[in-house]
Structures are given as structure tokens and as C-alpha cells.
Specification:
Helix 3 (93-110) packs antiparallel against helix 4 and helix 4 (114-128) packs antiparallel against helix 5 (132-146). Helix content is 42%, strand content 26%. The protein has a five-stranded mixed beta sheet with strand order 1-4-6-5-7. The chain has a two-stranded antiparallel ribbon with strand order 2-3. The mean pLDDT is 90. It is α/β, with parallel strands linked by helices.
Length: 162
């Protein structure tokens, strides 16, 4: 069965929650909420496992692809997000090369160069096959070409869904 997982790291609170005859022992807090938002972002990007920068920075032995910087709904600070793809031992040269090509397209997007980013994501799709994340960015580039984001562009994608 396909599963989506969001992983974020930080301090959480654990406790009993409920009333009278129904109690749950569970984690709560900003980290838990952000993790839930990452799970929802998986659905939009058609990915399986998304991790935050705080997790990616502490991983060894795994191949990860940066998928962008997002301001998750209800959060004050944006997070740099990565897709956890596989163990490094299981990665191929072509996969690692595709990460570099994707990163170049993402750099164009961050600079607000929508047409260039669109061309680079299209080239990525032709070379490595279309994936949900590149399709997400192609759609976003088209939208931003027609209607650029308001204010000064900082490369952060603001999400309005959970």
C-alpha cells in the first residue's frame, strides 16, 4: 500500500489528553503539526517521504533531493524540505545526476526566473521522466508567469492547505 510520511525533528510535548472516559497519550506541539503538514505536502508533490532540513542535516547514508522551501500553513518560519529517496548504496549515478539537474531548475525558480525554470523542469522531465514534484513546479511556473506572487519574491512557496 502506498504510504506518505513526513519527518521533522525538534521538541515535542507528550501527555494525556481527553475527558472522563476517553484518554489518549500522544505528542502535541509545533513539531507534530509541521510533520502533519509535510505529510499533506507529500500528496501535492506525489512523493512518499518528505523530511525537513533539521532531519536531512543529520542523515548519513541516504540519498535525498531538495524539493524547495515552504512556509507550511499555520507556521511562522519556512522550512527547507527534502525528499528521502533511498539508501546511498542503492542510488545510481543517473539518480544522483537527476538531483543536480533538478537543483538547477529549483535555483532558477528561487530567483524568480519562471520561464527559465519552466524550461529546466521540462528538460528534467524529458531526461529523467516526469515526476510529481517537477509537475508541481511546472504548474507553479505557469501560474506565476500569468500572475506573479505579490510583494518581493523570496523563493518561498506559501501553502494554504494542511
Amino acid at each position: 500500500m502506498p504510504t506518505r510520511i513526513g519527518i521533522h525533528a525538534g521538541r515535542i510535548m507528550l501527555g494525556n489528553f481527553g475527558a472522563m472516559d476517553h484518554f489518549e497519550y500522544r505528542p502535541v506541539g509545533d513539531i507534530v503539526n509541521a510533520t502533519t503538514r509535510l505529510d499533506g505536502l507529500n500528496k501535492r508533490l506525489a512523493t512518499r517521504i518528505l523530511i525537513s532540513d533539521s532531519v536531512a542535516g543529520n542523515l548519513d547514508g541516504f540519498a535525498v533531493r531538495e524539493v524547495g522551501t515552504f512556509l507550511l500553513m499555520g507556521k511562522a518560519k519556512p522550512l527547507k524540505i527534502y525528499e528521502l529517496r533511498c539508501r546511498k548504496d542503492d542510488s545510481t549515478e543517473q539518480m544522483l545526476h537527476s538531483f543536480d539537474v533538478f537543483s538547477e531548475a529549483l535555483a532558477s525558480f528561487r530567483q524568480g526566473l519562471w520561464e527559465e525554470a519552466q524550461k529546466r523542469f521540462s528538460a528534467y522531465n524529458k531526461a529523467f521522466g516526469e515526476d510529481g514534484t517537477s509537475r508541481f513546479y511546472l504548474d507553479l511556473c505557469s501560474r506565476y508567469l500569468d500572475n506573479p506572487p505579490a510583494g518581493e519574491w523570496d523563493g518561498v512557496i506559501r501553502l494554504d492547505f494542511k
